[in-house]
Design brief:
The protein is an alpha+beta fold. It has two domains: 159 residues, Glutaredoxin; 109 residues, no CATH class. Helices cover 52% and strands 14% of the residues. It has a five-stranded mixed beta sheet with strand order 1-2-3-5-4.
């Protein structure tokens, strides 16, 4: 009795698909098998094709210090950091997910930019992103994945508002730039100029303005409204409503800063 050819090819196709999926899963879990070298530092395995600059390890440790301020931080979480130094893996990631300075998912931080560890920046087409902050941003996405899992992360769909999901990694990464009022002032000043969608910091690195806006909104929610990230994700506040509330807070603080004496005298007169 002859086998049904349709069943035969269906079986072969199924096996092939399962094999490809297994191969992709193995690469995601063990990306260093694709690289010539790997270096372990603490909970991080650095996957690199060329000789590793010792300055990179220092920048990575600085990123880990930033991560410790997050409520999502898990000291047992082990991550792989994949460099774009001649290996094809970050190139393939860029083809699949679109060009970016980096990507963070599952237990992987993949850098899509050219890295200058000594200068502490990653570069794409002349735009620079602070390297320490970039790795902290992408590793925060890994911590989000670790906390909320595949089905409740923004991996395949938009489970959470974009400005919350991307703003929180910026909030953790930018801890050294923590003055909210100054951050809002900087944003407003840049928006008045021909900025090409990019906003710079004093170290000549920068970020896309939409990410900057998401950062300051999360910073307002967490530093002024005192929300945890879990609470922020559950909060039903509309993005425009939160932005309006933040700007009202900013205007009040700016007004008080411009007229500190009159405010003081007014408070004395009420006593």
């Amino acid at each position: 009795m002859k086998r049904n050819p349709i069943k035969k090819w269906t079986l072969r196709l199924s096996v092939t698909i399962l094999f490809i999926m297994g191969l992709l899963a193995a690469i995601v879990l063990k990306p260093c098998v694709l690289y010539a070298h790997s270096t372990i530092d603490g909970n991080y395995t650095i996957c690199h094709q060329q000789k590793l600059d010792p300055a990179f390890i220092e920048q990575l440790r600085g990123a880990n210090d930033l991560l410790k301020s997050s409520e999502l931080y898990d000291p047992a979480l082990k991550l792989s950091v994949c460099l774009n130094d001649g290996n094809y893996y970050p190139v393939v990631m860029g083809k699949i997910r679109g060009a970016a300075f980096g990507w963070g998912f599952a237990n992987e931080v993949v850098l899509g930019c050219n890295v200058n560890a000594a200068g502490n920046y990653g570069e794409i087409n002349g735009y620079r992103y602070n390297l320490t902050e970039l790795m902290a941003h992408e590793a925060t996405h890994c911590m989000e994945f670790n906390r909320y899992g595949l089905l409740h992360s923004n991996v395949f769909g938009n489970n959470h508002a974009w400005w919350k999901w991307e703003g929180y990694p910026e909030y953790i990464a930018r801890k050294g730039r923590a003055d909210l009022r100054n951050n809002i002032s900087h944003l407003l000043d840049v928006e008045k100029t021909g900025n090409n969608g990019w906003i710079y910091f004093e170290d000549s690195t920068g970020v896309v303005i939409s990410y900057y806006k998401a950062w300051v909104m999360v910073q307002y929610c967490m530093d002024v409204r005192r929300l945890s990230f879990d609470q922020l994700l559950r909060d039903n506040g509309d993005e425009n409503a939160v932005a309006t509330e933040m700007m009202e807070w900013y205007k009040i603080r700016q007004s008080r800063n411009k007229h500190p004496r009159s405010n003081h005298e007014s408070s004395k007169s009420k006593k």
